[in-house]
Design brief:
The chain is built from 4 helices and 7 strands, in the order βββαββαβαβα. By secondary structure, it is α/β, with parallel strands linked by helices. It has a single domain, classed as 3-Layer(aba) Sandwich (Rossmann fold). Strand 6, helix 3 and strand 7 form a beta-alpha-beta unit.
Length: 119
């Protein structure tokens, strides 16, 4: 889909997997959000983000991600130092956001966020 990320929607959950060694800029983050909006059909859906392999992100990208309100909840998956950095700044997000080291726990948390999908 993009050299920077892959996006999809499965069973009402948006998924975003960043490409290995990507450095996320504000422009790349906006592009990903627009692709995800295309999958949502006008609904506000939960998002599962795989951060493994991300090499960095700009302060503008961090600010934009925290301010964006297009998802009902965001589960971040990561294991390395960059995942921990993203998890730390995501605590300021306007959207319920949590960090996990495995997909199963992330999906359980998203399902526990209730039916937040809205048009």
């Amino acid at each position: 889909m993009s050299e920077f990320f892959a996006a999809s929607c499965e069973h009402g959950i948006l998924r975003l997997r960043w490409a290995p060694d990507v450095h996320i800029t504000y422009e790349i983050a906006v592009r990903a959000a627009r692709v995800l909006e295309g999958f949502s059909g006008g609904w506000t859906l939960p998002l599962l983000v795989d951060l493994n392999g991300v090499s960095g992100l700009t302060p503008e990208a961090r600010a934009g991600m925290n301010a964006y309100r297009g998802f009902s909840a965001v589960a971040l998956i990561g294991e390395g130092p960059m995942g921990k950095v993203v998890a730390a700044f995501s605590q300021r997000s306007l959207t319920p956001t949590a960090y996990f080291t495995n997909e199963g726990d992330a999906l359980d948390w998203l399902s526990g966020q209730g039916s937040r999908a809205a048009k």
